[in-house]
């Protein structure tokens, strides 16, 4: 790990960015044009003290997960990301399945989407980043580890949690769509890839998956229109737009509603309540006694 070079690289990249480059409001009283350390730490979901120590050449070696967060926060392209990893004494991630690195072009679009749910996924259904509206609609998907990072894996191994956002009458179709999308990735990446690892695990753990897998259906799973169930807002009919990277390994998924519709009103409600749980059971526990 080259601490002096890493510290210098982080400072220079931070100074080269403007708040508006990363979806922040500049505000008054900014002494320098670049981002503040606290802003980079916030974007990377780490403590300001940890990031400050990295810039002061006294931090511990960052994990690969931490480096991926820093690369995303500093809007590094592929070459910049690989350089960051090498300075930190880590091997740069390979291209398989989109990794944990968000394509800068998709990140720039996501930064400008505040009023509608949007998230970036790999073609294995791994959520790389979500905006606030997506968290309010879908729940926070950033805490999963291992194979559970993949939505298709959770769909078949934890169906009670993974499927409740879809109406019961739509779940069979979604199961087929999940499997056919995984087969696309499997066909590109091969049996020795992470896609192959997911397939082998699901063949062992889910008879439902194994039966659908044998059908050899192949297609992307994103539909133009879908109904999602929210615990407070109820069913929401949304249009779905997908923007893929050139190699198809990542997708920016944007969920919108036509103006002046019931769905648009429900999205407006989500902007207000955010991730608060307003269910009657939770409300009762918060009522004054």
From TrEMBL:
Native organism: Actinotalea soli
InterPro entries: Cro/C1-type_HTH, Lambda_DNA-bd_dom_sf, MLTR_LBD
PANTHER family: BLL4672 PROTEIN (PTHR35010:SF2), BLL4672 PROTEIN-RELATED (PTHR35010)
Span of domain HTH cro/C1-type: 9-81
Protein name (Swiss-Prot/TrEMBL): Helix-turn-helix domain-containing protein
Upper taxonomic lineage: Bacteria, Bacillati, Actinomycetota, Actinomycetes, Micrococcales
CDD domains associated with the record: HTH_XRE (cd00093)
Superkingdom to which the source organism belongs: Bacteria
GO molecular function: DNA binding
């Amino acid at each position: 790990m080259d601490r002096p070079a890493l510290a210098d690289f982080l400072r220079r990249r931070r100074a080269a960015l403007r708040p508006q480059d990363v979806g922040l409001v500049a505000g008054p009283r900014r002494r320098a044009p670049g981002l503040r350390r606290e802003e980079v730490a916030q974007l990377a979901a780490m403590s300001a003290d940890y990031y400050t120590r990295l810039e002061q050449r006294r931090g511990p070696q960052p994990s690969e997960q931490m480096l991926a967060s820093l690369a995303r926060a500093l809007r590094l392209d592929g070459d910049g990301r690989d350089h960051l990893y090498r300075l930190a004494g880590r091997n740069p991630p390979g291209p398989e399945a989109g990794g944990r690195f968000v394509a800068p072009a998709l990140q720039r679009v996501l930064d400008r989407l505040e009023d509608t749910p949007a998230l970036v996924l790999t073609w294995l259904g791994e959520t790389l980043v979500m905006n606030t509206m997506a968290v309010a609609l879908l729940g926070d998907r950033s805490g999963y580890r291992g194979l559970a990072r993949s939505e298709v894996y959770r769909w078949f191994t934890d169906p009670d949690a993974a499927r409740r956002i879809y109406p019961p009458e739509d779940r069979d179709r979604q199961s087929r769509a999940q499997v056919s999308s995984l087969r696309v990735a499997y066909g590109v990446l091969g049996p020795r890839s992470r896609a192959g690892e997911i397939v082998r695990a699901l063949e062992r753990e889910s008879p439902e998956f194994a039966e659908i897998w044998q059908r050899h259906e192949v297609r992307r799973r994103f539909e133009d229109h879908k109904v999602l169930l929210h615990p407070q807002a109820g069913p929401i009919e949304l249009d779905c737009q997908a923007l893929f990277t050139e190699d198809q390994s990542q997708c920016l998924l944007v969920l919108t509603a036509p103006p002046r519709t019931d769905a648009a009103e429900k999205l407006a409600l989500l902007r207000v309540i955010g991730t608060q749980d307003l269910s009657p059971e939770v409300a009762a526990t918060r009522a004054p006694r």
